[in-house]
Amino acid sequence: MTKKIIYLPLFSWFYYSIHSFDYDYIIEMFSSDIICKEWFYLNLSDEDKKLAKDLDYSDLSDLFDKYYDIDYEEYDIDYCSEYLEAFKKEFSENLLKDIWIELLEYKWLSSPTYYNFDTDHINIEVNYNIKKIKQYLLNNKEAFSEYILKANTSYDGFSAYGTNVFEEYISKDDFEAFELTQIIDFYIEEYAKTIDEDIELKLYYNTSDNIYLTDYITLINNKDD
User: Fold this and answer.
1) Ramachandran area for residue 100 (φ above 0: left; ψ -120 to 50: alpha; else beta)
2) How far apart are the two ends of the chain, measured CA to CA in Å?
3) Are 100 and 133 in contact (CB under 8 A)?
4) 16 Ramachandran zone, left/alpha/beta (phi>0; psi -120 to 50)
5) Side-chain half-sphere of 221: how many Cα atoms within 13 Å?
6) What is the DSSP string of 101-114?
7) How confident is the model at residue 225 (pLDDT cuts 50, 70, 90)?
8) Are 52 and 41 within 8 A, CB to CB?
9) What is d(CA 213, CA 13) in angstroms, rounded to the nearest whole number?
10) Beta carbons within 10 angstroms of residue 67's beta carbon
11) What is the DSSP string of the chain?
């Protein structure tokens, strides 16, 4: 078995996606009587408590920002780790059995400076057996050939990286990191054809069940400002 760092497939991005910190949900929580009394209102000045009762959404969010900080970076890191755990629970056994890729651990999150050129990636470490992966690809030659023809063919606005010819793909002594990601992605695409379910959405829900947004909110020490 060989180790390598790869991107985790099936994760879209954080920026304005279902995976991002749900700020609107937090404000909605603080708009409810129970939460406001137990937490939000508790930390407001007497003057702001009176104001908050009649505020609409936008004004209430301004008041929230006056008193609270959100640690988005910590949220992203924890979310990535939990997303990998949900992914492993869903696929680890079959990935190891069918294509001999073992998902090991979360390493880091990489985010682009500009999202029009790239997206967020969850970097993980994997173990893999090159010979058994090649056998899996040979067993699925026709379907995988169609997959790489689509994934690795350049078009206007997209420059492909990697070969789209099956024989060239499996002739290497080893796979590059992006190729291992593609192989897992292909495996999941084939699996998705057999079920009536949105897998990424399922992983999102399984991840969110273990993430508590309030854990990333801290009080700003400015009540007397």
Assistant:
1) left
2) 60
3) yes
4) left
5) 0
6) EEEEEEEEEE--SS
7) very low
8) yes
9) 18
10) 19
11) -EEEEEEPTT---STTSTTS--HHHHHHHHTSHHHIIIIIGGGS-HHHHHHHTT--HHHHHHHHHHHEEE-HHHHHHHHHHHHHHHHHHHHHHHHHHHT-EEEEEEEEEE--SSTTT---EEEEEEEE-HHHHHHHHHHTHHHHHHHHHHHT--BTTB---S---HHHHHTSSS--HHHHHHHHHHHHHHHHTTSSS-HHHHHHHHHHTT--GGGGEEE-S-TT-
Gap between the Cα atoms of 168 and 204, Å rounded = 35
Tell me the pLDDT tens digit for each residue of 29-71.
777 656 655 677 777 888 887 777 777 667 788 888 888 999 9
CA torsion 85→16→31→73, rounded to 10°? 60
Per residue in 177-218, pLDDT (tens digit) is 999 999 999 999 998 888 888 898 999 999 999 999 989 998
Place of tokens 């854990």: 215
Q: Tell me the mean pLDDT in the region 87-100.
A: 90
Scored b (16 or more CB within 10 A) or e, 77-86 reads ebbbbbbbbb
Q: Report the distance separating Cα 159 and Cα 165, nearest Å.
A: 16
Q: Is the pLDDT of residue 121 over 60?
A: yes
Distance CA 186, CA 164 (A): 14
Is pLDDT above 70 for 136?
yes
Task: Give helix 130-139 / helix 141-151 axis angle, nearest 10°.
Answer: 100
User: In whole angstroms, what is the distance from residue 141 CA to residue 8 CA?
Assistant: 23
In the structure encoding, which two tokens stand for residue 22, read together? Answer: 């749900």
